[in-house]
Amino acid sequence: MIVEGVHFLAADPPEDVAWKLVAVNLSDLAAKGARPLGVLLGYPLHEDEEWNARFLAGLGEVLHGYSVPLLGGDTVSGPAGATRMLGLTALGEAGGCVPSRSGAASGDILWVSGTIGDAGAGLRIAIGELEGPDALLARYRRPEPRLELGQALAPLAGAMMDVSDGLLIDAARIGQASALGLEVELREVPLSEPLRQILGDGSRTRIDAAIAGDDYELLFAASPAHSGDIEAVGRRLGVPVTAIGRFEDGGGLTLTENGVPLPLPPRLGYEHGSKAVQPVESLPPLP
Amino acid sequence: MIVEGVHFLAADPPEDVAWKLVAVNLSDLAAKGARPLGVLLGYPLHEDEEWNARFLAGLGEVLHGYSVPLLGGDTVSGPAGATRMLGLTALGEAGGCVPSRSGAASGDILWVSGTIGDAGAGLRIAIGELEGPDALLARYRRPEPRLELGQALAPLAGAMMDVSDGLLIDAARIGQASALGLEVELREVPLSEPLRQILGDGSRTRIDAAIAGDDYELLFAASPAHSGDIEAVGRRLGVPVTAIGRFEDGGGLTLTENGVPLPLPPRLGYEHGSKAVQPVESLPPLP
C-alpha cells in the first residue's frame, strides 16, 4: 500500500506513482528470490480523470517492463479530495531457497547491492530542497527491483530483505530477527558518483544516506565462504555488491567509521507510528 | 478495498469493518467455488489506537470464524484524519470448475441464494433512516460469504458471481458478459421475514431490495437440467436457493412483476463513477 504524502508526493507524475507502486512490491519478491507471477491492484478512482489515465499508462509501462501481468484486483470510488492510497499485491513463485530475516549466523557478512541514499537525495530534489541530476530523482520515483539478483542470491544468503525504511533500521531488523549483534562500517556503505558530486563524502552525507530509505536495494547476510560466489553474481548481472558489516554473537547495532564506533543517529530510518498491528498469536496459524 | 463512507460508515464498529473487509473478499472466492488459503492485509495505521485495536480484534474473530490465516501484507502510516481505506487480498484454490460471468447459456435459469435487500435495509437502520431489528443491521455489517455453497454449486453453474453492487445490476452483468437477454421476475426475488415485517411486500420494497446491493449472496446461471441438484445442495447446506429469472437469446434486462414488464428503475445498483481503469489490452497477457 502506498500513501500520498508518505510514499509519494501529490506533485509526483501519476505514471511514476504507478511505477513505484509496482516496483516496491516486486522488490519484496526480489528479497525472497521469487519470480513474479502477477499483480492485483486496489485502486480508488478519482474525480481527476487525467490522473487516472496517466496512472494507467504508467501501470502498463512498468508491467510491460518487468513482463508481469495484471491478474485482477478492485476499483472503488475514492471520496472526493481524499488522500490517495493505492494497494497492490504481487504474487510470485520462489525456488527451494527463500531467505527470511532471521537466518543470519554469527560470522556472516552483511552485504548490500547497488548504491544507497540516491532515493533520499531524489526526494529532496523532488520537494525543492536540493538541486541535483535527474538520475537521483529517478531513483526516488522509479526504483528498480533487483529481481534477477534476488533469484541468484537466494541460495547464497542466510537472510535477505530489501532496503525500504533505511539501511540502518533494516540491517538492525535482520540482526534482531536473527538474535545477533551487527557492526556496520559507514565508510563501506556504497554511494553513487552523482550523490557524492552534490553532497560530498563526509560523515553527514553517509549517515543521511544510511537512514534515508526508499533504496529498494537488497540487504543480505551470507557466510564468508560464499563471498567469491556473491561477487561473481554481482559481476555477471552488472550490479555492485558491497560488504558493509558483520554479524556476531550478542545483540544490537554498532556503527563504525574507519573502525571507530560512532554514536547511533537518533533515528535509524523510517518507523511506523504504531505497534497496534503486529503479528498476533491469536490469529489462525499459517497453513 | 473498502472505503469509509462508501463501503462502511465512520460510525460502524471497527470490529465489524474488519469482518466486512474479510467477508466481502471471501465472498469473491465463494463465487468462484474456491476454498480460501489465506489473506494479505493492507492497513493504514491511524492515530486512533483504540480503533486499530478493535479492528484487530474483529480481524481475529472473522479469520478464526472461517479458519483463514493472515499470510502477511503491509501496514502504512495513514495521514492524520484521512478517510479510511483498507485493502485485503484473499487467496484461494479452486477445483476443476471455476464459473465466470460469461458462461450463461440461452435457456439457463438465473438463481440467487439467501435473501436480498436485508443489507440495504441494514444500512438505512445504521444511518438512522429506518428502525428495524438487529438481524438486518447484521446483514449490512457482518455479511456471511457463501463459501460452502459456492464450492458445491461451481460444478453446476455456467456463470456465477456474488451480489455486491445490486441484484439487478449484477444480473445484467452476467447477461451482458454472456451476450444474452435476461428476464427477472420481481415477485420471485427472495425477501426475508424481518424485511417484509418492516417494509411490507410491495413493488417499491422489492425494487429497492433488488438495487440495494451489499447482499453477498450468490447469483448464478444453470441449465434447467441441474435444477433438482441445485435445490438439493441448498437443502443440504440449509441455504435457500431461488429461481428468479431466465436467460434467452437477444440482449438486455427485462424486469417483470407477475409476468408483466415493468419500466427499469433509473439505476440498477451501485455503479463506479469512472471508466478509466478497465481491462486494457495493452497490458501484458495473463500467464
Structure described in brief:
With 287 residues, the first copy, chain A, is an alpha+beta fold. Helix content of chain A is 34%, strand content 23%.
The oligomeric status of these chains comes to homodimer
Head-to-tail CA distance between termini of chain A: 24 Å
Beta-strand share of residues of chain A: 15-25%
Helix content percent band of chain A: 25-40%
Using DSSP, what is the number of strands of chain A?
11
The overall average pLDDT of chain A, rounded, is 92
Largest interface: A-B, 54 and 54 residues
Judging from the principal axes of the Cα atoms, what is the shape of chain A? globular
User: Number of DSSP helices of chain A?
Assistant: 9
Low-confidence residue ranges of chain A? 273-282
Description:
Two copies of one chain form a homodimer. Chain A has 287 residues and is of the alpha+beta class. Helices cover 34% and strands 23% of the residues of chain A. Chain A has helices at 14-31, 49-65, 118-126, 134-141, 147-153, 167-177, 193-199, 203-212, 227-237, and strands spanning 2-3, 34-45, 70-77, 85-94, 109-113, 159-162, 181-185, 218-222, 241-248, 253-257, 260-262. In chain A, the strands form two sheets. In chain A, strands 6-8-5-9-7-10-11 form a seven-stranded mixed beta sheet. In chain A, strands 1-4-2-3 form a four-stranded mixed beta sheet. In chain A, helix 2 (49-65) links the parallel strand 2 (34-45) and strand 3. In chain A, helix 1 (14-31) packs parallel to helix 2, helix 1 (14-31) runs parallel beside helix 5 (147-153) and helix 5 runs antiparallel to helix 9. The longest helix of chain A is centred in the first third of the chain and has 18 residues, at 14-31. Chain A is globular and about 55 Å long. The two termini of chain A are 24 Å apart.
